[in-house]
Structure formats: C-alpha cells, structure tokens
Amino acid sequence: MLIGGCGFSTAGGVKVFRLFHLLNIRTFMSKIKRSQMPTHKKNEMISTLLIIALFPLIPAITGVYFTAVENISYQDAFFESVSIVTSGGLSVGLVNEHTNPITMIILGFLMIFGKFEIIVIIYIFMPKLG
C-alpha cells in the first residue's frame, strides 16, 4: 500500500515517479557530483528522500497512538494507519462509529497528508525545496 499510483493520480502512497528519482541516488550521495547537479534536481532528491522516509514513519507513530488509545495490537494499528495514509481502503475494523472523535480528526489529517504525498507539509516547513 505504501507504493501508490503514478503521478497526478488520486492514489495515496509514494508516487511511482519518486522511485525513479532514486536512480540518481549515487550521484546525489557523491559530494563532487552533487555540487554539479542543478538546484532543482537536488531539491527533488531531498524531497524524494524525505517522502520515502516519512511514509513508513508516520503510520508507525500513528500505530503507537492507536495501540495506546484503542487497545489493539500494534500490527493491526500499523496496518490501519498505512491503509488510512495511503487511502488503500483495507481495514481491520479499527475505525467505526464508536471511534474516539480526536482519533477521527487525526485520521482525517492523515488522509489529507497521504493524498498530497506529504509534500505539502514538507514545503510548509522547508519552502526552499518548493
């Protein structure tokens, strides 16, 4: 579920074109070659690395929250979190009409973050990457 659709699709998850950016990871990791890269390529690579790091991290943190608040196993909580962030539609039944309202608000934000590929949040806090 973490690998989403192609660019400009409504699928959540890491967009496929981000994975193609990883083909240039060796160039980016080399200090000499990185200095020769255009600025927009460097910013795209930084954004890609941040997105690929944050997509599993955010559901992991949310899973810990669900485990504490909803009294379910971490495996189920993580699965539900990934499904929500990626808009996968799969569920273990965590979210229903009895779910805590605060949890529902968090889930709503997770869905929005997942649809925007978390890139909007990165650009808010790091506008030079935009």
Explained architecture:
It is a single chain. With 130 residues, the chain is mainly α. The protein has a single domain (16-124), classed as Helix Hairpins. Helices cover 65% and strands 0% of the residues. The chain contains seven helices and no strands. Helix 5 packs across helix 6 (101-115). The longest helix is centred in the middle third of the chain and has 32 residues, at 39-70.
Could you say which structural class the secondary elements and strand pairing correspond to? mainly alpha
Write the element-wise H/E pattern from the N-terminal end onward.
Answer: HHHHHHH
CATH architecture: Orthogonal Bundle
Shape type:
elongated
What's the alpha carbon Rg, rounded to whole Å? 17 Å
SS strand fraction:
under 5%
Unreliable spans: none
Number of helices: 7
Question: How would you state the average pLDDT, rounded?
Answer: 79
> Helicity range of the residues?
55-70%
What does this entry show, briefly?
The chain has a single domain, classed as Orthogonal Bundle (Helix Hairpins), CATH 1.10.287. It contains 7 helices and no strands. By secondary structure, it is an all-alpha fold.
